[in-house]
Amino acid sequence: MAGRITVGEKLPFFLYDTPYSAQNRLRDLLAAKSPLVLLFMANFGHPITRTFANRYAETFGALRDGALALVVRSRADKLARSIGPDTLPYPLMCDADGVLYDYLDIPQSASPLMTYSLEAWRILRDAKKQGFRAAKGASYQLPLTLILDRDGTVLFCHYGASLTDVPEDCASIQSLLEELDLTPDVPELAREALRQAFAETAPRARRAAVLDRDPSGEFLPPEVIREYGAPDLAETSVIDLFDDPYEDD
pTM, whole model, 2 decimals? Predict the structure, then answer.
Protein backbone atom coordinates (compact mmCIF):
# COMPACT_ATOMS: atom_id res chain seq x y z
CA MET A 1 0.00 0.00 0.00
CA ALA A 2 1.45 3.37 -0.99
CA GLY A 3 1.08 5.67 2.00
CA ARG A 4 -1.09 5.60 5.07
CA ILE A 5 -4.64 4.33 5.15
CA THR A 6 -7.34 6.97 5.59
CA VAL A 7 -10.99 7.20 6.60
CA GLY A 8 -13.27 5.82 3.89
CA GLU A 9 -10.77 3.29 2.55
CA LYS A 10 -11.18 -0.44 3.09
CA LEU A 11 -8.77 -2.67 4.93
CA PRO A 12 -8.50 -5.91 2.94
CA PHE A 13 -9.77 -9.05 4.63
CA PHE A 14 -6.85 -11.16 5.84
CA LEU A 15 -6.07 -14.29 7.82
CA TYR A 16 -4.35 -14.02 11.17
CA ASP A 17 -2.98 -16.23 13.93
CA THR A 18 -3.51 -15.82 17.67
CA PRO A 19 -1.50 -17.61 20.37
CA TYR A 20 -4.34 -20.15 20.63
CA SER A 21 -5.70 -20.55 17.08
CA ALA A 22 -4.40 -20.40 13.52
CA GLN A 23 -5.70 -18.88 10.28
CA ASN A 24 -8.62 -16.90 11.66
CA ARG A 25 -10.54 -14.65 9.27
CA LEU A 26 -10.87 -10.91 9.81
CA ARG A 27 -14.14 -11.17 7.88
CA ASP A 28 -15.58 -13.41 10.63
CA LEU A 29 -14.39 -11.10 13.40
CA LEU A 30 -16.07 -8.10 11.76
CA ALA A 31 -19.27 -10.07 11.20
CA ALA A 32 -19.44 -11.15 14.85
CA LYS A 33 -19.58 -7.58 16.17
CA SER A 34 -18.81 -4.19 14.73
CA PRO A 35 -17.53 -1.57 14.73
CA LEU A 36 -14.17 -3.19 15.44
CA VAL A 37 -11.45 -1.17 17.17
CA LEU A 38 -8.15 -2.51 15.84
CA LEU A 39 -5.09 -1.41 17.80
CA PHE A 40 -1.55 -1.93 16.49
CA MET A 41 1.25 -1.83 19.05
CA ALA A 42 4.80 -3.12 19.49
CA ASN A 43 5.95 -6.61 20.46
CA PHE A 44 3.89 -8.16 23.26
CA GLY A 45 7.04 -8.46 25.37
CA HIS A 46 7.41 -4.68 25.39
CA PRO A 47 6.36 -3.15 28.72
CA ILE A 48 4.17 -0.52 27.09
CA THR A 49 2.26 -3.09 25.04
CA ARG A 50 1.83 -5.32 28.09
CA THR A 51 0.63 -2.39 30.20
CA PHE A 52 -2.08 -1.41 27.72
CA ALA A 53 -3.05 -5.03 27.05
CA ASN A 54 -3.62 -5.36 30.79
CA ARG A 55 -5.70 -2.18 30.96
CA TYR A 56 -7.91 -3.28 28.08
CA ALA A 57 -8.45 -6.66 29.75
CA GLU A 58 -9.33 -5.14 33.12
CA THR A 59 -11.77 -2.59 31.68
CA PHE A 60 -13.21 -4.68 28.85
CA GLY A 61 -16.70 -4.57 30.34
CA ALA A 62 -16.86 -0.83 29.62
CA LEU A 63 -16.80 -1.52 25.87
CA ARG A 64 -20.49 -2.10 25.20
CA ASP A 65 -21.00 -0.96 21.62
CA GLY A 66 -18.10 -2.42 19.68
CA ALA A 67 -15.40 -5.07 19.51
CA LEU A 68 -11.67 -4.88 20.19
CA ALA A 69 -8.60 -6.64 18.81
CA LEU A 70 -4.94 -5.97 19.58
CA VAL A 71 -2.25 -6.54 16.93
CA VAL A 72 1.32 -7.18 18.15
CA ARG A 73 4.64 -7.80 16.42
CA SER A 74 5.12 -11.18 18.10
CA ARG A 75 5.27 -14.85 17.21
CA ALA A 76 2.06 -16.70 17.92
CA ASP A 77 3.85 -19.96 18.70
CA LYS A 78 6.01 -18.29 21.36
CA LEU A 79 3.08 -16.54 23.02
CA ALA A 80 1.13 -19.83 23.02
CA ARG A 81 3.33 -20.99 25.90
CA SER A 82 1.68 -18.54 28.29
CA ILE A 83 -1.45 -17.09 26.66
CA GLY A 84 -4.50 -19.29 26.34
CA PRO A 85 -7.99 -18.61 24.98
CA ASP A 86 -9.28 -17.41 28.37
CA THR A 87 -6.38 -15.11 29.23
CA LEU A 88 -7.64 -12.08 27.31
CA PRO A 89 -11.25 -11.12 26.60
CA TYR A 90 -10.33 -9.92 23.09
CA PRO A 91 -8.32 -11.41 20.17
CA LEU A 92 -4.54 -10.97 20.15
CA MET A 93 -3.41 -10.95 16.50
CA CYS A 94 0.24 -11.86 15.89
CA ASP A 95 2.16 -10.25 13.03
CA ALA A 96 5.81 -10.81 13.90
CA ASP A 97 6.99 -10.11 10.37
CA GLY A 98 5.18 -6.77 10.29
CA VAL A 99 3.22 -7.50 7.10
CA LEU A 100 0.24 -5.42 8.21
CA TYR A 101 2.50 -2.76 9.72
CA ASP A 102 4.29 -2.34 6.39
CA TYR A 103 1.03 -2.41 4.40
CA LEU A 104 -0.45 0.32 6.58
CA ASP A 105 2.81 2.27 6.66
CA ILE A 106 2.91 2.40 10.47
CA PRO A 107 6.15 4.24 11.29
CA GLN A 108 9.04 3.22 13.48
CA SER A 109 11.67 5.49 14.94
CA ALA A 110 15.24 4.96 16.08
CA SER A 111 15.02 7.90 18.50
CA PRO A 112 13.37 7.48 21.90
CA LEU A 113 13.20 11.27 22.27
CA MET A 114 10.90 11.41 19.24
CA THR A 115 8.56 8.66 20.46
CA TYR A 116 8.49 8.90 24.25
CA SER A 117 5.65 10.52 26.15
CA LEU A 118 5.68 11.20 29.88
CA GLU A 119 3.62 8.04 30.39
CA ALA A 120 5.96 5.99 28.20
CA TRP A 121 8.94 7.22 30.17
CA ARG A 122 7.26 6.24 33.45
CA ILE A 123 6.32 2.74 32.23
CA LEU A 124 9.80 2.05 30.84
CA ARG A 125 11.50 3.48 33.92
CA ASP A 126 9.57 1.06 36.13
CA ALA A 127 10.26 -1.81 33.73
CA LYS A 128 14.01 -1.13 33.74
CA LYS A 129 14.02 -1.28 37.54
CA GLN A 130 12.67 -4.81 37.17
CA GLY A 131 15.34 -5.83 34.67
CA PHE A 132 13.86 -4.98 31.26
CA ARG A 133 16.45 -4.04 28.65
CA ALA A 134 15.57 -3.21 25.07
CA ALA A 135 17.78 -4.70 22.39
CA LYS A 136 20.53 -2.35 21.28
CA GLY A 137 19.71 -0.55 18.07
CA ALA A 138 16.07 -1.67 18.16
CA SER A 139 13.53 0.59 16.51
CA TYR A 140 10.58 1.98 18.41
CA GLN A 141 7.28 0.84 16.91
CA LEU A 142 4.63 3.55 16.95
CA PRO A 143 0.96 2.57 17.34
CA LEU A 144 -2.09 2.86 15.10
CA THR A 145 -5.76 2.95 16.07
CA LEU A 146 -8.39 1.99 13.48
CA ILE A 147 -12.15 1.62 13.77
CA LEU A 148 -13.62 -0.62 11.08
CA ASP A 149 -17.16 -1.10 9.85
CA ARG A 150 -18.61 -4.54 9.13
CA ASP A 151 -17.18 -4.54 5.60
CA GLY A 152 -13.72 -3.35 6.64
CA THR A 153 -14.28 0.32 5.83
CA VAL A 154 -12.17 2.63 7.98
CA LEU A 155 -14.43 4.83 10.11
CA PHE A 156 -11.64 6.30 12.24
CA CYS A 157 -7.86 6.35 11.86
CA HIS A 158 -5.17 7.71 14.17
CA TYR A 159 -1.43 7.17 13.69
CA GLY A 160 0.12 7.59 17.13
CA ALA A 161 2.71 10.31 17.65
CA SER A 162 4.19 8.55 20.69
CA LEU A 163 4.44 5.00 22.04
CA THR A 164 1.42 5.56 24.30
CA ASP A 165 -0.75 7.53 21.83
CA VAL A 166 -3.65 5.03 21.93
CA PRO A 167 -6.93 4.95 23.91
CA GLU A 168 -6.15 4.75 27.61
CA ASP A 169 -8.58 1.89 28.33
CA CYS A 170 -11.87 0.41 27.15
CA ALA A 171 -13.87 3.18 28.80
CA SER A 172 -11.96 5.63 26.58
CA ILE A 173 -12.70 3.45 23.54
CA GLN A 174 -16.40 3.45 24.40
CA SER A 175 -16.33 7.25 24.76
CA LEU A 176 -14.64 7.54 21.36
CA LEU A 177 -17.35 5.40 19.74
CA GLU A 178 -20.01 7.60 21.33
CA GLU A 179 -18.31 10.82 20.20
CA LEU A 180 -18.11 9.47 16.64
CA ASP A 181 -21.80 8.47 16.80
CA LEU A 182 -20.90 4.82 16.18
CA THR A 183 -23.15 3.44 18.91
CA PRO A 184 -26.79 2.31 18.81
CA ASP A 185 -29.42 4.88 19.64
CA VAL A 186 -29.94 4.33 23.37
CA PRO A 187 -31.93 6.73 25.58
CA GLU A 188 -29.64 8.67 27.90
CA LEU A 189 -31.36 7.24 31.00
CA ALA A 190 -30.67 3.71 29.79
CA ARG A 191 -27.08 4.61 28.94
CA GLU A 192 -26.55 6.06 32.42
CA ALA A 193 -28.01 2.91 33.97
CA LEU A 194 -25.50 0.82 32.00
CA ARG A 195 -22.64 3.03 33.17
CA GLN A 196 -23.76 2.68 36.79
CA ALA A 197 -24.10 -1.09 36.47
CA PHE A 198 -20.58 -1.37 35.08
CA ALA A 199 -19.17 0.84 37.83
CA GLU A 200 -20.72 -1.41 40.47
CA THR A 201 -19.83 -4.79 38.95
CA ALA A 202 -16.48 -4.18 37.25
CA PRO A 203 -14.32 -4.66 40.39
CA ARG A 204 -15.90 -8.07 41.00
CA ALA A 205 -15.96 -9.19 37.39
CA ARG A 206 -12.44 -8.36 36.29
CA ARG A 207 -10.67 -11.03 34.32
CA ALA A 208 -7.20 -12.26 35.17
CA ALA A 209 -4.77 -9.52 34.21
CA VAL A 210 -2.05 -10.03 31.63
CA LEU A 211 0.26 -8.30 34.08
CA ASP A 212 -0.29 -8.35 37.81
CA ARG A 213 1.25 -6.53 40.70
CA ASP A 214 2.61 -7.81 43.98
CA PRO A 215 1.70 -6.05 47.26
CA SER A 216 4.56 -3.59 46.78
CA GLY A 217 2.98 -2.38 43.53
CA GLU A 218 5.57 -3.85 41.16
CA PHE A 219 4.66 -5.71 38.00
CA LEU A 220 4.81 -9.48 37.98
CA PRO A 221 5.15 -11.58 34.80
CA PRO A 222 2.03 -13.42 33.62
CA GLU A 223 1.51 -16.87 35.06
CA VAL A 224 2.18 -19.65 32.60
CA ILE A 225 -1.20 -21.25 32.03
CA ARG A 226 -0.39 -24.28 29.91
CA GLU A 227 0.92 -25.21 26.52
CA TYR A 228 -1.86 -25.78 24.01
CA GLY A 229 -2.07 -28.59 21.49
CA ALA A 230 -2.74 -26.14 18.67
CA PRO A 231 -1.41 -26.47 15.12
CA ASP A 232 2.18 -25.41 14.51
CA LEU A 233 1.44 -21.72 14.12
CA ALA A 234 4.85 -21.00 12.68
CA GLU A 235 4.04 -23.42 9.86
CA THR A 236 0.40 -22.50 9.23
CA SER A 237 0.61 -18.74 9.56
CA VAL A 238 -0.28 -16.70 6.50
CA ILE A 239 1.85 -13.92 7.95
CA ASP A 240 5.49 -14.97 8.10
CA LEU A 241 7.06 -15.05 11.55
CA PHE A 242 10.50 -14.17 12.83
CA ASP A 243 12.24 -13.58 16.15
CA ASP A 244 11.07 -10.39 17.80
CA PRO A 245 13.21 -7.34 18.63
CA TYR A 246 12.04 -7.80 22.23
CA GLU A 247 11.89 -11.07 24.07
CA ASP A 248 8.44 -12.55 24.64
CA ASP A 249 7.65 -14.44 27.80
Answer: 0.74
